[in-house]
């Protein structure tokens, strides 16, 4: 594992964001970054000493107040007031990993030397990350334009020794106390520093990077779930043949179909109905078209990763300090590129879940399950089997369809019409995170149901890969039997999806899935 992540003028990789946000790997500013920051700070200091010309963010107010000139003796108060007034979030507390991601991404922009922030200010932000001090941020407050203003303002507030934070152990405390405990000194913000600390799309980008990583793994689980269901329902694997997939050469489709072939290889259940007596030549779409849907989701994810890569190379601040010494206003803080990508991912996520739900329903319906007992019940009539697990799954899928409605098509003008079009990218990120959690639960219920169905096909045995998944699940979840409290079984399966144990079980047979 990487012992630290270097933050400098070079772009961060998605793996760097995940390491710092989720594994709390320390960060270190490079000497090149410190030099770049010192150089750009000299430019800002020169502007601050120019009493004849107003410069946005240095000697003026902000937003609709940009035409208000601020004299030199009030500019420290200007920065403090900016942060205090903008730290206005509300609602449920944002997850620690999201806050750490936005802190890291803001640090990288500061380290670029294009913002005019002093090295000591950036070093304090790095020190907060390394000390495990995480500002408390409410989930409402960002419109995704002029950056994630409210969320980042709570971070800047903590640098000033104000506001509330959580320490490494999750204990809530005043920022001043946390800084003191970590032997850190609050910063007094200089000209432009307040603006530079908050004028970025870092929160929504952090959520995009983490969601993309989660979805990449969940799409492999979707293939596993689909393979188990095809097998349990006595479907055919002939439709997943490589030459059939090549007729429509989408790379994601090819990858999903290759996974399905690997997962179903060597199945005695599949072999049991390959003979001339089998009259079922076409399965339902939820079985036959699984690679087309999961594959399109992969192709969408590839596009989103391209957007994320561009954003990780971007420097978002307004105004920006250019290499030739100019300080220019710009619109790079607008979150549209990230907002669209966040919204885009929510669509295939919902559709993959919807197809999973259809397969689950088919396994529970006696008329369509090819010989399985109704609802996979132990004693039909007395037991209800997985009837209500399907209800739970359907409820989640319905919500995922609502969450697929884009946030980025909405805009509410703010700041006295100065900020008259906003991206709502933060909202897109928040709903995508909820969607990821929902898809994880939907796939878990399909896998839980398919594993039960495969057990009920005994003495026929599943493929080695799907059998390994069932065996891994059986280490925490019992097999078929009379009705029992079902919520713990669902939760244990969700945990096995999330911790990677089911994927590892499949890949122990197939090798790495695509």
3D architecture notes:
The protein has 2 domains: 5-200, Fumarase/aspartase (N-terminal domain) (Fumarase C, Chain B, domain 1); 207-411 and 428-510, Fumarase/aspartase (Central domain) (Fumarase C, Chain A, domain 2, Up-down Bundle), CATH 1.20.200. The protein has helices at 14-22, 31-48, 75-86, 96-111, 119-131, 149-159, 175-181, 193-198, 202-232, 242-245, 251-264, 268-271, 285-288, 290-312, 336-364, 387-403, 425-456, 464-474, 487-498, 501-510, and strands at residues 5-7, 27-29, 90-93, 134-135, 138-140, 164-166, 172-174, 320-321, 327-328. The longest helix has 32 residues, at 425-456. By secondary structure, the protein is mostly helical. The two termini are 23 Å apart. α1 crosses α4. It is built from 20 helices and 9 strands. The strands form 4 sheets. The protein has a 3-stranded antiparallel β-sheet.
What key attributes describe this structure?
three-stranded antiparallel sheet; 514 residues; EC 4.3.1.3; 9 strands; histidine metabolism; 55% helix; lyase; two-stranded parallel sheet; Histidine ammonia-lyase; Fumarase C, Chain B, domain 1
